[in-house]
Amino acid sequence: MLERGEVANSWRRERWPSLRLLTPNWLSRLPGHHYDGPEPDGYMTMAEVTEFIERFAKVSRAPVRTGTEVTRVRRIDDGYQVMTSNGEIRCRALVIASGACNRPTVPELAAAVPESVEQLTPFSYRDPAQLADGGVLVVGASATGVQLAAELRRSGRPVTISVGEQARMPRTYRGRDVLWWMVASGIWDQRYDEVDDLDRARRLPSPQLVGTPERTTLDLNVLTAMGVEPVGRLAAIRDGTALFSGGLRNVFALADLKLARLLTTFDEWADDEADAPERFAPTQVPASARLQLDLRRGEIRTIIWATGFRPDYGWLDVPVLDPKGRLRHDGGVVDSPGMYALGLPVLRRRKSTFIHGIEDDARDVTNHLAHHLDGMVE
Amino acid sequence: MSTTVVNGVNVQALLDAREVLKGAPEAAQFVWRASSKWQKGVHSTTTIQNFFGLGEEQTHKSESVFDADHPAVFAAEDNGITPIEYLLVGLASCLTAGVASVAQNRGIQLRSVESTVEGNHDIRGILGADSDVRNGFNDVKVTFTIDADASKEDIEALVAQSQKRSAVFDALTNPTNVTVEVA
Questions:
Q1: Which of A39, A335, B57, B118 has its CA 20 to 30 A from that of A59?
Q2: Do B139 and A288 touch (CB under 8 A)?
Q3: Subunit contact A247:B157, Cβ cutoff 8 A
Q4: DSSP string across A242-286
């Protein structure tokens, strides 16, 4: 098991300090290892996640080689040659478990942002104090975008949030964590080969959730009430002016409708008359959302690109990527003999990228891997 | 997908095309063309017959000619609708086509789909009367009235999805690079 840094490296180094897990503590479990502290309904801080994973590494006696960065993988004879910062390894089978979030995605139009505006990504963002005084444009309204927008607004800064496709979710529904419903109703166990549009399911933005001790919801209505100004999707930057889509109303409508369908699924699964179904107010559409914002005027001092993440396969010298740079795999079985993947969106189930989701996926993938090795022996 | 639903949209052909074009992006490159000719005053006629797509020249079944002019309140002869009204034609017809296609794909039988489109326009912009007023619409409102075998939520979802996949909605709500040259 090769780890470029320390155990739980990305949790230590690639997350902003105030982040907490989106999943409640009781749900953060690994095979034979679960949260046993006093706050089962709370959400782990980054330090706690790091400790949790470190402890699992010890308990499971995982053979981790830390400080070993993979620099190149290529196919040889009946397996792979792995070049690392600590020398070469040869193997017959290989599992890529480097995740889907190695690099922040920044759209090409970022190149047109005037120099006077500082640009940050979730990797370079630490806390509000790091930013110049003045306005912030947060681009993207998934979990990262709404969390950073709220934190920056609380620091007193004027914040504008550019909203494209979004997944609205209440933190709790009918008194329980919304993720309890995702697990209990079976949605998160839905298999990749049962999902209608798998390609789309794998590209969904992360839900607008935040883990706080108060278990508060953080959707656009909450942000608007805090004084954050929503604008449409950032469509272009022309002569130093950011141009936003005029389709904000529909983006809100789509998210509201989708949320209503999700809650209906929960209610139908619960199939009880006792608890009245809860419904949430529609996302408030600003009377007239701004369509443009002059970035040279000084109103916006910082842009934060909360526009998603992508994996980095720069080290992978095997032709298994599609034209968009995504790994070609069928439920984690990569399109090259003996190569496997884990921890990618909807890899085998909707829960694949969550901590508790790895157990079932790992079992399936390692079964296939074991058969592959058996076949090679015969 | 329900096979008993008949909205007259060949959704299977569209879904098949989507699969084919995923692997052949060059065939998906279309060029839509119109040719316009000045008549007199602010009256012009625009003709549309040919376009390019699926790797070759294509032709509509017949040529269409559109008159554009301005009404009497603009001191014109009103030989046709104003150019900006053509945007309303485009938006309404695009969203309606989307509603029908999405309904077919979702197995929803439509009985009637009607819409009204209103574009609010401050003409001080085009007259140069106030430099703070833009030339185009300030906002556009589309109102659908749909009779279908579906719940109110499902109908709202149809309309939302049709906007999400609409060429004209996108062209109106997002900036587009436009080059105008003299040949």
A1: A39
A2: yes
A3: no
A4: EEE-S-HHHHHHHHHHHHHHHHHHHHHHH--SSSPPP--PPPPPP
Contacts of B175 in chain A (CB under 8 A): 235-236, 238, 243
Three-state secondary-structure class, residue A16: coil
Tokens standing for residue B24: 């052949």
pLDDT at B176: 92
Mean pLDDT computed over B24-43: 96
Question: Which residues make Cβ contacts (< 8 Å) with residue A297, sequence separation at least 6?
Answer: none
Query: Is B160 close to A243, i.e. CB distance below 8 A?
Result: no
The mean predicted confidence, pLDDT, of chain B is 94
Q: E strands along A36-194, which residues?
A: 70-76, 79-84, 87-91, 94-96, 103-104, 118-120, 135-139, 159-162, 172-173, 176-177
In this predicted structure, what is the pLDDT of residue B3? Answer: 55
Residues of B in contact with A252 (CB under 8 A): none
Radius of gyration of chain A (CA): 22
- Mean pLDDT for A351-367 is 96
Distance CA(B50)–CA(B33), nearest Å, equals: 7
Residue-range domains of chain A with CATH: 9-102+310-377 (3.50.50.60), 105-308 (3.50.50.60)
**Is residue A232 less than 8 Å (CB to CB) from chain B?**
yes
Q: What percent of chain B has pLDDT over 90?
A: 86
Cβ partners under 8 Å of residue B80, min gap 6:
B43, B45, B66, B67, B68, B69
Phi, psi (deg, nearest 5) at residue A347: -55, -55
What confidence category does residue A78 fall into, taking pLDDT thresholds of 50, 70 and 90? confident
Q: Is A246 on the interface with B (CB under 8 A)?
A: yes
Within an 8 Å CB–CB cutoff, is residue A260 touching chain B? yes
B4 pLDDT exceeds 80? Answer: no
Structural domains of chain B in order of their starting residue, each with its CATH number? 1-27+82-183 (3.30.300.20), 33-81 (no CATH)
Instruction: Look up the ipTM and state it.
Output: 0.87
Give the per-residue pLDDT at A375. 86
| Neighbouring residues of A118: CB distance < 8 A, sequence distance ≥ 6 | A131, A132, A301, A302, A303
Two structure tokens written together for A295: 């970035």
Measure the CA–CA gap between A52 and A33, rounded to whole angstroms.
9
Q: Nearest-CA residue of chain B relative to A289?
A: B139
Determine which of A242-246, A274-278, A318-322, B2-6 has the lowest per-residue pLDDT on average. Answer: B2-6
Mutate: best of B174, B177, B178, partner A, most A CBs <10 A: B174
- Distance (Å) of CA A24 to CA A32, A175, A210: 17, 14, 10
In this structure, how many other beta carbons lie within 10 angstroms of the beta carbon of residue B172?
21
Q: Which residues contact B52 (CB under 8 A, 6 or more apart)?
A: B29, B30, B31, B33, B58
CA distance B64 to B23: 33
Residues in chain B, total = 183
pLDDT (mean) for A114-143: 97
The per-residue pLDDT for B2 is: 46
CB contact under 8 A, A235 and B161: no
Q: Which residue has the higher pLDDT, A301 or B12?
A: A301
- The radius of gyration of chain B's CA atoms, rounded to the nearest angstrom, is 19
- What is the structure's pLDDT at A356? 95
